[in-house]
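Standup notes
- DV: blocked on the single-chain target, sequence here:
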Amino acid sequence: MVERADPARRNRRTRRAGRGPAAAAALVLLASGLAACGGGGGVPTLSWYINPDDGGQATLAAACSKASGGRYRISTSVLPQDATQQREQLIRRLAAKDSGIDIMSLDPVFVAEAANAGFLRPFPANEAKQFTEGVFPAAVENSTWDGRLYAAPFWAGTQLLWYRKSVAKKAGVDPAAPGFTWDQMIDAAVRTGTTVGVQGNKYEGYMVWINALVESAGGQIIGAAQKGDDAAIEIGSPAGKQAATIVSKLARSKAASPSLSTDDEERVRFLLNGSRGGFMVNWGYVWRAEKGDAESGVIPKTIPSDLGWARYPRVSAGRPSKPPFGGIELGIGAYGKHRNTLAVDAVRCLTSTPNMKRYMIDSGNPAARAVVYDDPEIKKEFPMAGLIRDSVEAAAPRPITPYYGDVSGAVQSRWHPPASVDPATTPGRSATFIRQVLHDQALL
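- DV (later): unblocked, structure below
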């Protein structure tokens, strides 16, 4: 049995997310109003709160509504762009026991928090198999808390190394070769006067990079995460120091972006397409975005043909990298009227293998089931489909803990800006700060 975090701490953190009794009361009124809107006769409406995309989730909602034969209709509401803001909006409403949230698209790192707080309806064993069969292990792991499945894997993302083939040739390196490391990449960029694009802004994308480096070095940021605020803090290990060495080397080199400390996914894609573009780590959406921008004239039409891809770089040549894991899981609200009936049927439809394929083609976001990558249509649309599949198979999740927001915030605060990172002190200082934050001895 997995040990739960102390209930008193859980309740205190829930109140913090709700911003006090007045906010909670207002949300209760809002929730009752939303529930009333869904009442009355006619076809039941299920509310699905989605992360922003290019319309793919809305398309699936319409398809599953039609496939239900009139048993239900799914309406979509778009959450904020930033994952942390998505979490805040959902947690506030769930803390107020909002019955107007039937289904929600969750960033994997927030499933444990919502499940531990009792905000998600768990899938019993007789339901869980249909949502996990053939699904990537990392997606199942991120959807599980306390030994129970609390969300259905929907799509599973990972980062690849994207590069300009002309730059790699000029530098005399092959990023797709076994053993290609961060050091080799940074040195190649310095030799060619180009950049290595990473997500260095003080946000979740920076935590993704740090975690991938630590994991690729053979370590982890925290261990025994099931112990909640008593988890083992391990970022001060040799693996943490190796990760800090890479961050420091890049930040202090000529290969660093001039705006490294504020760079996000789209900023580094912009850099890759510029005159100093060389290398970049980024998510799988890049291929579809680059093709679309070239077709619309935003970037030169020659850029996609010069775009190469490879597995996430290694920290050391002798140890395979552990690429980042991301994606979206579908959770069912614990307070929805249809949580045990229609909402389960809708999630079953939305996460079916055919609909995962359809969503991957529509949005460019990779499916959570490996079999989708063997589909001829997927292989044609995504020439790197096999690499994405293998990378997700090898991916390492960020810490799975109900206090993930505290852990991530503590790491970002001590590792930012990247140029301030010192391998001799930063990992140890961040380990101390994480422990202090988890024990309420320090504030973020």
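- Follow-up: DSSP finds 19 helices and twelve strands in the chain.
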